[in-house]
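Reviewer 2 asked us to include a model.

Predict the structure of this chain.
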Amino acid sequence: MPIFDFHIHPSLKELLAPEEARLSPWSKIEAKLKIGKLFGQETQIGINSLFNHTLNSQANLSQLQQAGVNLAGIVLYSIEKNIARGVLERKVASNGRINPLDPAVLISIRDTPSYYSWLCKNIDSLLKHSDSEGGKARFRFINSINEYQPDATNIVHGICMIEGIHCLMDDPDAPDAEESLFRNLADFQQRYKTKIFAINLAHMQAMPFFTHAFGIQFIKDELFYPKGNGITQAGKRIVKELYKQNILTDLKHLSFVARQQLIELHKYSYPGIPLICTHAAFTGISSRNRYAQLYEKPVERMGVWEIRHVKRRGHLSNSAFNHSSINLYDEEVIDILRSGGLIGLSLDQRILGYPAEIIGYQWNIFPTDHEYISAEEALAFFQPYTDPSNVPIIRDPESAQTGEEIQAQEPITSEIHYSYFLNQLIHFLHIVKQAGIPFNKAIGQICIGSDFDGLINPIDCCNNATEMPEFQYEIYRRLKRGRKIWKESGIAKKEVDIEQLVDGLFYSNALHFLQNHFK
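Predicted model (structure tokens):
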């Protein structure tokens, strides 16, 4: 059976290389650090520990074809200028020592961002290199699920997705940003004759129209502080136009307040349109408890409120949650399911709950996840407290993950990360059971949305797309034979059709969703 992925980036990293490298979306990129001459020869070394695998190929077209991922949400994305700025602040990147990362490309993004032109570079690269070297495999966008050929194992069928509404603008801060969005959207559709299935309304950097959730932690935080208060009136006009053109909006990367507003819009203005979140994870808590697991009092700085969440242990041994508001709260999962929507599970280890850093844990410091809440959204996020500094700290040390536990997990992360992923599945089952939604219905509304090649640090038990078939088999085997998993989960194994759950998660759920919504 083929494999589906709801959110994947096969064309992005090759665009960051110098033109003379002649890379394509089929090229395998292994980032190296140039260290100069050794024994008379120019020498390079791997830098996985420096950038956490983020620069290596995780889902180029060759990897997708090898893994049997022949249907995927192919994401077009324009890197924001603050990401380029943050990377360039690291001397190792700005002095050209990382191969094949070209500082000149990053400088052009930082200094003269024209996001729509970068979006076009993304799709041009895919279309120009639609055939693999040697012609044994090919890539093509499809405009309807009826064009999909399940048995064509040599073809990667792409469903066009766009990550961030900024990608359709020349300059989001320009006075005519809204007009340029609609102008470029029309140009894209006329030029490429490619249907856009879904768009993320926000991404990593503050932009007009939609407030984003803080979500990037390997670059200076202040470059990515959220601004604004949910969805503006212009943002509502944009949503209306996208739905008019049968383009879905992706909840991922919206702030909690913006998500709540979009969900309310759906309920009252667009009840027949499904909600989707293409590359998500679950906070493990109700939205009512969104600041009930804080490590310390919120701190105000530069127009945002910084909060640190203690990591609550998961349902399974050796697992925990990331309570940050970039992830979905229990009620939001229910809203998506009841809308007839689809959730893609991310394979980013930090998003799934594994601690981003282990420094200091040898002193048993509590691992935390930190984020920032826009000052304009503070009243809504911290309600009923009008002053976030008055939010009480209700820490439960018995349920909080400890530094000592992380130290024990760190040497065997390839095994441990299975627990973090399975913990997400188990929590999903808890949410639907508590909501009274039948398992056989709900497990048809979840799939994989890896975010491979989206500048993530993937789980060590599935580092790239080529490992997806083995990952699928292991998830099935552990759920089928793992008595301990079900004992710890609090859900009876007999309540869940494991074959339906795993087959649907990796392929059939998305196919059925697309048969209904991508005609």
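Residues 413-435 form the longest helix (23 residues). Residues 392 and 417 are 32 Å apart (CA to CA). We have added this to the supplementary material.
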